[in-house]
């Protein structure tokens, strides 16, 4: 891949894994995940409370609005991250999604709910990419994998707090608390400084944040591969876990299945998975091999979820949700790889759009899932089990191909710009 080093020497990078930058990025992602996953936890209760009878289809509609907002926000914040700086995005996105979630606690109609999920989605789109980019450009290359591992491990545990808050305080207060946590986080911005690599590129007057430059030549294929790696995770979270009550009923689970508990156990597994995948990539000195291993494990657990739980207890179901969460715990590793694939002048654009396009793939996965569910095979509809199997297999195969054909980035020097 062609690289052009920028003329001035980089400012010194901090060697501390627990610097203010890593702490703020980790806590920002914690609140981000809390707010992102909260709707999946409160879907049934909140829609029922608003008098909505079809909680499945209307819930999918609201998920699509939220994820559609993340698609728009990914582009917006990604461009701003390369043009205006990583810090402006990190804190600007926190303000937007915090205010939107506070407003979400006051909704009275489905349409109000939908538009606020769209606005919250736009806000939620910026935090992770900006945080990972900032950490990747600040820590030395030997430690940046551990830094992003810390961000992810702390961050995904926000989903467990969301479940506990909902159980203790109800769905409206859960939105108020989430928004308040985000606004409180802004106080930590003192002592966090902009990336030296970004300041260097800015002083060199290099073109930055041109989103359309990603769609030229071989850069486009590299970018598409980055997007595809994250799709299996959002198939698992957006389809299998969000619709856990529906899958539990179809599988004949011997007791009621709670969407909130399914999310809790999945994200509990994600905490360990993100720690393991990030640590493994550092130990074996390969991002690719770590991702390939986790994709293979994910395939095995999707098959277990869909075909080996018939007639089992809710406890067994939640155990599989936990292990399934572990196997998709490569989220921060995926975003790190995306950030490492591109130069400083496009890095925030890629690191922000890639996870949000992967999250936004739910907008395509949901109608594909619904269409496959009703598809006639041998005179019988494929159903949600068959649809889940087909969609899961396709997303995993494409992601495995993407990982296997992209360059290794472990230990790569990030102090360069993309030739535009």
From TrEMBL:
<feature type="transmembrane region" description="Helical">
    <location>
        <begin position="316"/>
        <end position="338"/>
    </location>
</feature>
<feature type="transmembrane region" description="Helical">
    <location>
        <begin position="113"/>
        <end position="134"/>
    </location>
</feature>
<keyword id="KW-0472">Membrane</keyword>
<keyword id="KW-1133">Transmembrane helix</keyword>
<feature type="transmembrane region" description="Helical">
    <location>
        <begin position="87"/>
        <end position="107"/>
    </location>
</feature>
<feature type="transmembrane region" description="Helical">
    <location>
        <begin position="223"/>
        <end position="245"/>
    </location>
</feature>
<dbReference type="Pfam" id="PF07690">
    <property type="entry name" value="MFS_1"/>
</dbReference>
<dbReference type="InterPro" id="IPR036259">
    <property type="entry name" value="MFS_trans_sf"/>
</dbReference>
<keyword id="KW-0812">Transmembrane</keyword>
<feature type="transmembrane region" description="Helical">
    <location>
        <begin position="171"/>
        <end position="192"/>
    </location>
</feature>
<dbReference type="InterPro" id="IPR011701">
    <property type="entry name" value="MFS"/>
</dbReference>
<feature type="transmembrane region" description="Helical">
    <location>
        <begin position="146"/>
        <end position="165"/>
    </location>
</feature>
<feature type="transmembrane region" description="Helical">
    <location>
        <begin position="257"/>
        <end position="278"/>
    </location>
</feature>
<feature type="transmembrane region" description="Helical">
    <location>
        <begin position="290"/>
        <end position="310"/>
    </location>
</feature>
<feature type="transmembrane region" description="Helical">
    <location>
        <begin position="20"/>
        <end position="41"/>
    </location>
</feature>
<feature type="transmembrane region" description="Helical">
    <location>
        <begin position="61"/>
        <end position="80"/>
    </location>
</feature>
<dbReference type="InterPro" id="IPR020846">
    <property type="entry name" value="MFS_dom"/>
</dbReference>
<protein>
    <submittedName>
        <fullName>MFS transporter</fullName>
    </submittedName>
</protein>
<feature type="domain" description="Major facilitator superfamily (MFS) profile">
    <location>
        <begin position="21"/>
        <end position="410"/>
    </location>
</feature>
<feature type="transmembrane region" description="Helical">
    <location>
        <begin position="381"/>
        <end position="403"/>
    </location>
</feature>
């Amino acid at each position: 891949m062609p690289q052009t080093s920028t003329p001035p020497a980089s400012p010194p990078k901090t060697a501390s894994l627990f610097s203010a930058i890593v702490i703020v990025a980790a806590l920002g992602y914690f609140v981000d995940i809390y707010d992102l996953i909260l709707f999946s936890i409160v879907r049934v209760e909140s829609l029922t409370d608003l008098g909505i009878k079809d909680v499945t289809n209307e819930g999918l509609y609201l998920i699509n609005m939220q994820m559609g907002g993340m698609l728009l926000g990914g582009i917006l914040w990604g461009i701003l991250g390369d043009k205006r700086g990583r810090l402006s995005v990190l804190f600007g996105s926190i303000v937007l999604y915090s205010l939107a979630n506070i407003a979400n606690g006051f909704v009275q109609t489905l349409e109000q709910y939908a538009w606020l999920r769209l606005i919250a989605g736009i806000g939620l789109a910026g935090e992770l990419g900006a945080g990972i980019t900032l950490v990747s450009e600040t820590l030395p290359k030997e430690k940046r994998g551990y830094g992003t591992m810390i961000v992810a491990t702390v961050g995904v545990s926000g989903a467990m707090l969301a479940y506990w808050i909902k159980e203790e305080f109800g769905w409206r207060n859960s939105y108020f608390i989430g928004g308040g946590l985000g606004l409180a986080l802004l106080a930590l911005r003192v002592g966090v400084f902009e990336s030296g690599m970004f300041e260097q590129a800015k002083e060199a007057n290099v073109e930055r944040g041109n989103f359309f430059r990603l769609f030229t030549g071989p850069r486009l294929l590299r970018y598409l591969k980055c997007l595809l790696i994250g799709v299996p995770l959002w198939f698992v979270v957006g389809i299998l876990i969000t619709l856990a009550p529906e899958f539990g009923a179809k599988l004949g689970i011997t007791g009621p299945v709670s969407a909130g508990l399914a999310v809790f156990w999945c994200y509990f597994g994600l905490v360990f998975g993100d720690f393991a995948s990030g640590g493994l990539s550092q130990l074996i000195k390969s991002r690719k091999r770590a991702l390939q291993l986790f994709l293979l494990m994910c395939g095995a657990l999707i098959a277990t979820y869909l075909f080996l739980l018939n007639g089992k207890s809710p406890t067994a179901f939640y155990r599989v949700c936990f292990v399934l969460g572990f196997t998709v715990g490569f989220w921060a590793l995926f975003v790190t790889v995306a950030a490492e694939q591109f130069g400083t002048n496009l890095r925030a654009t890629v690191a922000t759009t890639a996870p949000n396009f992967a999250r936004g793939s739910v907008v395509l996965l949901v109608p594909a899932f619904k269409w496959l569910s009703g598809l006639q095979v041998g005179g019988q509809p494929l159903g949600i089990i068959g649809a889940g199997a087909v969609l899961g297999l396709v997303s995993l195969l494409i992601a495995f191909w993407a990982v296997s054909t992209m360059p290794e980035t472990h230990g790569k020097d990030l102090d360069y710009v993309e030739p535009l």
